[in-house]
Amino acid sequence: MERVAAGRHGGARSLLSGQGPATLPLSLCALVVIWMLAAWINADAELLPGPVEVLGIVREELASGELLHHVAWTLWRVVAGFSLAMLGGLAIGFALGRSDTVDAWFGPWVIVALNVPALVVIVLCYLWIGLNEVAAIAAAAFNKTAMVAVNIREGVRALDPRLSDMARVFRMSALARLRHVILPQLWPFLAASTRNGLAIIWKIVLVVEFLGRSNGVGFQIHLYFQLFEVGHVLAYSLTFVAVMLAIDVALLQTWERRTTRWRRLSESH
Amino acid sequence: MALLEVDLEGLWLSAQQILGAIRFSQRRGETIALLGPSGIGKSTLLRCIAGLERRYEGHITAPDRLSTAFQEPTLLPWRSAIQNLTVTTGIGEAEAAIWLDRVGLGGRHSYFPGQLSLGQQRRLSLARAIAARPELLLMDEPFVSLDPGLVDEMMTVFEGLRAAEGTTTLLVTHAEAEAERLADRVLRLGGPPARLQAEGA
């Protein structure tokens, strides 16, 4: 059981873990106040619009349907790229973690992939595949796959051999082993990959859209960058930050609470 | 016809001999105790029989349906007591509930292993091993490091289950009293490397 607990560092950290229930809203309010002050001192709504003006733009764009349209496109790319990266990373990480020979040969490739700048991958995907949706999602996924693979490799190496032996002796089916023996041990590593993955992949998707798509939040930011509309740039990016934080709280934290229930109960015993 | 046939010439792991020549067979319904000091390779012998260790020289003919109750309960910490039975052995919930009753874990269906004491975990592990309806049950020091009262209680539980199911059992232990009480036949291992010594009654 110690082995399982050792994977914990990967799991629990949350974007929104504060000290008390009041700390989080206070901290965010302070940020908005600083923004307001900066806008007031700067006194140039074109260069730095205040929160009220940006909120007004958000409302306008929401009413026109533009905001939802572009957020939906970006969200789709995030979800597609993320899913591909998780599946690919899981498969590669499994192969690397299971066999030392595979790791010796292909481990270095993963390190290389890990160190290729996201921008290079994006440009190459557009050049090789074309300026289309496939290239956009491939670029987003590729940038993340190596990271997932490295994470899962550690998780696979930490699998408890005693439990694997037990599963073999009792002739558990491959599916039952995966579901009840392997995945629960990989959960902390999957959780870490999911968290880091979502946080990074949406930023990559924005660059992907900035460089070669005609919709999505990144495209809008490109557009308003050329028009020098700081307010719109802020409105679109902050909306998407809010969407990603909502996903973190609503989905990830709930999921995590469910899958770690046994640990909390076992520890409190 | 013997259920288990062991004809080992030896086992070497990284140039070190762990097991020597070991030859014995076990009939259906019989309980054999392998008795010997700790660290002599008894557990390794069980791993060979269970098919988890295959680098030995010689032959082992063992039934396909095996189960184990080891010193470490090796339960799934993220599954409840009742799921630990259903998920590993494939029995239904109703049957699993009966097994929990039989080993005195009646009110603890939804407990996770981490919420159970070591004695309770061992009993759950024993229930799992027998509930799998094995042709051969392999037990490795299942009563070690428990209070004497608890050891007696667990042996009684085991004897009851074995009598009801007629489980053929191969028990590894370092405790003379355990071997004498539970086994039809005691095989003594000496060494290292582990070798079979004169056979007792």
UniProtKB/TrEMBL annotation, chain B:
The keyword ATP-binding applies. Keywords: ATP-binding, Nucleotide-binding, Transport. Pfam families: ABC_tran. One of its GO terms (molecular function) is ATP binding. InterPro entries: AAA+_ATPase, ABC_transporter-like_ATP-bd, ABC_transporter-like_CS, ABC_transporter_ATP-bind, P-loop_NTPase. Residues 3-198 form the ABC transporter domain. Belongs to the ABC transporter superfamily. This is ABC transporter ATP-binding protein. The lineage of its organism: Bacteria, Pseudomonadati, Pseudomonadota, Alphaproteobacteria, Rhodobacterales.
